[in-house]
Amino acid sequence: MTSLEKRATVSLAAVFALRMFGMFSILPVLAIHAQSLPGGTPLLVGIALGIDGLAQAFLQIPFGLLSDRYGRKRMIYIGLALFALGSFIAAAGANDIYVIILGRLVQGTGAVAAAVIALLADVTREEQRSKSMAVVGMSIGVTFGASMVLGPTLNHYIGISGIFALTGVLGLAAMAVICFIVPTPQISRPHADAETVPSQILDILKNAELQRLDFGIFSLHAAMRGLFVVVPLLLLNVGHLPVNEHWKVYLPVMAISFFAVVPAIIIAETRGKMKAVFCGAVGLLTVSTLLMAGMVNNFNGIVAALFLFFLAFNLLEATLPSLISKIAPAGSKGTAIGVYNSFQFLGLFLGGALGGFLAQHASHAAVFAFSSGLCVAWLLLALSMQKPPAVRTRMYHVGYVLDPQKALALSGRLSALDGVTEAVVIADEGVAYLKVSMGEWDETRARELIEKGE
After folding, report:
1. Are 393 and 330 in contact, with CB atoms under 8 Å apart?
2. What is the pTM of this model?
3. What is the per-residue pLDDT for 204?
4. What are the residues whose beta carbons fall under 8 Å from the beta carbon of 190, sequence distance 6 or more?
5. How crowded is residue 100: how many other Cβ atoms within 10 Å of its Cβ?
6. Spatial distance between the Cα atoms of 144 and 383, rounded to a whole number of angstroms
7. Are residues 258 and 351 in the same domain?
8. Cα(83)–Cα(23) distance, rounded to whole angstroms?
9. Can you tell me the distance from the alpha carbon of 410 to that of 359, in angstroms, rounded to the nearest whole number?
């Protein structure tokens, strides 16, 4: 990477981290706080936990598309301003569950993720972009773990109102990073590998293999958000663990599970065992939710099941995007990711809302039983999926003007090369997208064809 690409990557990863920390740190404490609020029923707690996902599900693709037209930074400023506004609304009304729900909804309207990724694509070269995306993904994972650990401690010192206010301040800090640190792209244009292309959405929705992954990310995040309707209360009431000491559970669970998945990821990617590792993780997720359903009155059982849940969760969070990249047609990865993210956000909302409904009208065990049902359905879909191709995506800049006919011809010549399973050259972008074998492939010849156009 060039120094500019490194600066853009680190600073935009920081923007994600600043925004996500506040969103995540409220999860382990909101259910407990709401018990003391007038009308703070489990259903309303679940809605408060998930309502941001509903807004993001419907707005993250439009924000990305609007950034093509009105500018990346302008749309990101608008989104972060809405996010900060929602945080301050929730902070001001932290003693009213309905105001918290309103604040969380407004937070969710600041759905800048797609626009931030588009900005990252503008300031990185095609051949370096996957590295930048990986750094952003790691920052989100680390932020999630840190917020689970620090959320209860922050609640002890500054309370729920303080956490929401801090979240708003972090949103404003993210705006400052965008303004003063993130490079401004000389040219902004659509990137098929990083953005949603409206004309591709219907084809992506019809793809049966991608449908399995979309249902999977929906189920994974529905189970996770429903978990936080119940687990904080179980740690308090069953384990008699004060809220400010919940980090003693979350820290080892998050730290060990985060590092324990690394060998499995390496085996999946380098030894062609992606389906086996993936199905094993879904199976483990199913087992963990069943254990939670059966051990709601056993503190040690809850902690053990929680560890298994996040072991599976972290592994699936790492492998699902890789599967999307392998399965999505060349030149359609951005659209596939956009649709996938929308299902993820819908899972957050419905997991919270249905989890709250079941906790209020049935039992805590019913929340985990519902998650288990989703996981069983996902496991059946995963077991019947086709073996993912052992491929990786490569992108190359075409340094000359191409008309659609020449781009199509070049796509055909590239597709015919040894080790190239699929190739698409997009004339408007001046980019060649290739799916190539994990083994040897004729990269030298591919570069020659792209450079010469022959």
Report:
1. yes
2. 0.93
3. 95
4. 68, 118, 197, 428, 429
5. 30
6. 29
7. yes
8. 10
9. 58
